[in-house]
Amino acid sequence: MCMPEKFWRTMVETLKRSELLKDSRFVTMQDRTSHRDILTDILDRIFMSQTVDCWVNLLGDKIPIGPVLDIDRALESPFVEEIGMISSVPHPAKSDLRLLSNPLRFDGERPVQKVGSALGADNKDYL
Fold this sequence. Notes:
Strand order of the largest sheet: 1-2
Strand content: 5-15%
Oligomer: single chain
Helix content: 40-55%
Number of helices: 8
Low-confidence stretches: none
């Protein structure tokens, strides 16, 4: 749901759904929030009619949007690779794990990721 009115109007006009601008349930952000479930159902039906890439291409230069990627797509993203958000973590019993890195940086460095202990391996320490 677009927060600022200018983005709401732009999105609705781009989607060619100007009737939503006239619907009293959706006139203001407060109205849209009060009728969030109804509006979400309407927008879900619209957005399920095309691919994510289609919507990003249509709306991406008009309103601030971006796809929500699952792990596989995120690991394939050139942008994620370029900003250093992919790490390879050694695994004792399998090949190295390719993971999304921690998004936080401390003194310019991301925290080191490691594989957790095997199931039950540190029970003695905790008991």
